[in-house]
């Protein structure tokens, strides 16, 4: 009872920052689904913290309702919220990252699963991968019933290709096609990572050959203008976003996509 009182006091303070409509909607939904009072307090507290990080109310309610539908406990929902909050604090892009988390929740991934995926999303974004492209990648692959472990492998690979000089969109298309092929062929977990690794090696070799070909030359206009990662402006605006952004990525010419 004492612990519940302390949690209630903490929740009352943090809820002031959250949209009241979202709080009321999620609380009513949780109560209608017979969620315990203690778990309702955890859920509304997590909601408030995500709202404070810039996650839109609609996204938060979507995540919480999906988590309740999947019969996640308050502790499990806390894990999901914490992994999302941590990613936003490091990389910004609250709306897109919340969309990735929501897709994973709707797929039935556990809090541990989602934490693993979000950790790879963070790593990929540190390499200037685009949160938008990672969200599209996750959405496409989740339609193919990809597991959390395989999704984490693919996200990491997409970030690796961006680090090698591919644009975020080309990285998403290239590695996404390879992943879909592996899923269609029923490649098992232990072999899937090796298969994706070979694809990364192949595309890295292609990029190296282009670097050698154009060494010492300015990239021509036919390759398009160099630009910042497409979501960089959003990352700078959101609470908890990158304080000191990286310099715009210099994307070399991209080999023909498969």
What report would you give on this structure?
- This protein is mainly alpha-helical and 258 residues long.
- It is 70% helix and 0% strand.
- The chain is built from twelve helices and no strands.
- It has helices spanning 2-15, 20-32, 37-52, 57-69, 74-91, 94-107, 111-126, 131-142, 148-164, 168-184, 189-213, 232-237.
- Helix 2 (20-32) packs antiparallel against helix 3, helix 3 (37-52) packs parallel to helix 5 (74-91) and helix 9 (148-164) packs parallel to helix 11.
- The chain is elongated.
- 45% of the residues are buried.
Short recap of the structure:
The radius of gyration is 20 Å and the shape is elongated. The chain is 70% helix and 0% strand.
Key terms:
disordered C terminus, elongated, mainly alpha, 0% strand, 258 residues, 12 helices
